[in-house]
Amino acid sequence: MKRPPILFLVTAILYALNASPAVSAQPSNVTIQYVTPEKFTDFRIYGRDAQWSASYFAGQISDGLRPVLNRRVPGAKLTLRFTDIDLAGRYGNSSRGGRNVRVTRGLIAPARLLFVFLLQDSSGRTLASGSTRITDTSNPSSLANRQRSGSQPLYYEKQMLEKWLKSVKTS
């Protein structure tokens, strides 16, 4: 079977990017990487810097995607290399002590994630690859979302990525 030239190009770029320095999560079947996270649109988790936010985001997202990946393609490996992140909500003043808190109610600031991905089976064969941009289309003001999001870190970002992973077409 002949591979389309674009698939070859995307795969080559992913392998080349893996050789360059980047912030990366610990090895597992889900690998999270970043391209200059300090320049991302909105990537300050709990008001912390990009380095701390990158580590925290990688852990939370990997933990959320791992079971979905294992159910969908057992033994597969997924690499996500983020080129921009705009977290859900915005910082606003809290009436509880004046500290800044992330407000996610309403549709004012949906999460947006831009990344390059590579999905491989257990033998290293490429099942899917490409670059994508996903935007949260859920209704954060719904009662169910408000109840869940308040108790789960990066709730909207996890939901977006899980939905995306379930929709990825594999070869």
Task: Present the secondary structure layout.
Layout: H1 5-19, E1 30-34, H2 50-72, E2 77-86, E3 90-93, E4 100-103, E5 112-120, E6 126-135, H3 143-151, H4 155-167
Helix pairs in contact: 2-4
Describe the structure.
It is a single chain. This protein has 171 residues and is of the alpha+beta class. The chain has one domain (5-167). The chain is built from four helices and six strands. The chain has helices at 5-19, 50-72, 143-151, 155-167, and strands spanning 30-34, 77-86, 90-93, 100-103, 112-120, 126-135. A four-stranded mixed beta sheet has the order 1-2-5-6, sandwiched between helices. It has a two-stranded antiparallel sheet with strand order 3-4. The chain is globular. The N and C termini lie close together (11 Å).
